[in-house]
Amino acid sequence: MDFTSQNRREFLQLIGMGVGGVVFASGLGGLGACATSRVKRQGDEDFYFLQLSDTHWGFKGPPNPEADVTLKNTVALVNALDRQPDFIVFTGDLTHTTDDEDLRRKRMAEFKQIIGGLKVTSLRFMAGEHDASLDAGKAYQEFFGELHYSFDHKNVHFVVIDNVSDPGASIGQAQLAWLRSDLQRLDAEQPIVVLTHRPLFPLFPQWDWATQDGEAAIAILQNYRNVTVFYGHIHQEHHYMTGQIAHHSARSLIFPLPAPGSVPKRAPVPWDPAHPNKGLGYRGISARPGAEYQLREFAISKE
Questions:
Q1: Cβ of 214: how many Cβ atoms within 10 Å?
Q2: What is the pLDDT of residue 17?
Q3: Distance of CA 214 to CAs 120, 150, 164, 230, Å?
Q4: Does any domain span residue 297?
Q5: Does the pLDDT at position 84 exceed 60?
Q6: Is a pLDDT exceeding 50 seen at residue 121?
Q7: At 131, which CATH number?
């Protein structure tokens, strides 16, 4: 991510033209490599939101010597957008893990204070394993609320799934039952967006890039024809289909990770002082119900 004024202007121009740094979706159903369309439903409206992921506030180390300013710069950049999003969702690992319970809460308070500077006041959160796995999400819930929940926005149903508070990376039978019950009132054509931290499918279990019972959640979601999953955790862009369900990961705001299985050991991509923001970024998602859509990713970087 490059926070130079020149690149910021280029990003804003792309947003204004509706190309480049935005994901355009027709009701967010079945995002994939090919454009498609669906019949516009009564009450459908265009809208736009941002996904920010894996900020890891509190991280310090060689993979990002500028970790103390990245989140603050992102807040300033988002505030400078000509069109402010309807809401912003943070898909986990808001803070960096620590065994010190007091420090964990301190980092969460600092994170909340920093993002409190956003112009957008509608913010949605979910936990990552760095936030919740050591205490079953106790501290996280004190600052950010429920670990799983759902909400509706302009005829799109959003579901937040917790696959991190269990250190074994399971959703659990109780939450699966809740998911089934939550979706039961919807018809099969309802546009649904699932927000989660880990991938629901077994992307690369050797690196903890999977959810133990994710296939059970996918089986429930397969009953609906317009489902898209946005997640974080893997610190890179990745796209995958399970049946008609599209899964899209977001880049991190702290450091990139290597492609799954590309190296013997999972570790942050080494810092390059000549290209300090390479591989970092966030995503805009613009829903355009009833129209064709295409998926476009944009990283704010000069590399």
A1: 24
A2: 26
A3: 32, 18, 12, 14
A4: no
A5: yes
A6: yes
A7: 3.60.21.10
Report the distance separating Cα 3 and Cα 281, nearest Å: 11
Cα–Cα distance, 129 to 209 (Å, whole number): 12
State the SS3 of 115-140: HCCCCCCCEEEECCHHHHCCCCCHHH
User: Is residue 111 within 8 Å of residue 146, measured between CB atoms?
Assistant: no
Residue 31's pLDDT band (boundaries 50, 70, 90)?
A: very low
Is 64 or 284 the better-scoring residue by pLDDT?
Answer: 64
* 232-242 residues labelled b (16+ CB within 10 A) or e (exposed): bbbbbebeeeb
User: At residue 20, does pLDDT exceed 50?
Assistant: no
Q: How many helices (DSSP H) and strands (DSSP E) are in the chain?
A: 7, 11
Count of CB atoms situated within 10 Å of the CB of 299: 20
Which residue is it, tokens 């926070």? 3
> Where in the sequence is the domain holding 98, given as residue range(s)?
5-38+54-259+273-287
Helix ranges restricted to H, 84-202: 101-115, 129-132, 138-144, 173-184
Assigned domain for 266 exists = no
